[in-house]
What we know:
alpha/beta; single chain
Amino acid sequence: MHLLYVDESGDTGREGSQTRTFTLSGLLVHHAEWHETQASIARMRRRIHEKYGYPPQAELHASEMLGRSQEHHGTKRSQRVQSVLHAVEMIRREKRLTPLRVVVEKHPCPQDVIHAAWLALLGAASRHIASSDGHALCSAPGLAVICDDHRTAPSAAWLCEINSQLELGGLLIDEPFGRDSKQSPLLQLCDLLAYLTKQTVEPNALFKQTHAHNMLKRCEALFTERGVTITIKEEGGAFAPP
């Protein structure tokens, strides 16, 4: 069974919205490799604490880490930028993780934004699972979805429709369930990827500066090397494999 952790960036509104895109970012991991993956994340957190001072118990929350505050959890923004770079590099090296992302251009897309994003993300996850040979310890396919406290989760009605469109009945286990991202290292990494992806298409003041471009380059290199990126601009969207 695979676990899919998901977080978002942007909002799903069209009229009066301050954003023109909506992003879902996910990390897929097989349950048999979950403990090893968590241990790898814990080692990364210890390293960024030792090198850059970012506390291991503090949440990796991108908008706060890369915000205007000169001091966040006792670290300067330059230290937090290095921490983010280190975290993204850890994902790239951690082959047990498969990064997925969906970017919806809201106004050209005639579909419901969150429905379109989830349809694409779950489709990408199911294709990845179908194309893999399974795990030596457990070859039975399955997919459980974990979101940030249900904020990104599709409704039961949407999920029923998505199930029928993708034929996930034999794969998806129950409805997506929420967790507090403060207690989930994998959700925190999803937040970083969703935020950086958002900045590639709608950069804020920080990411319009040259010195911040390394974070975007690191994120793009991750998805180019072995991730899945889907961009939806119109009916049906566009699938871009790695």
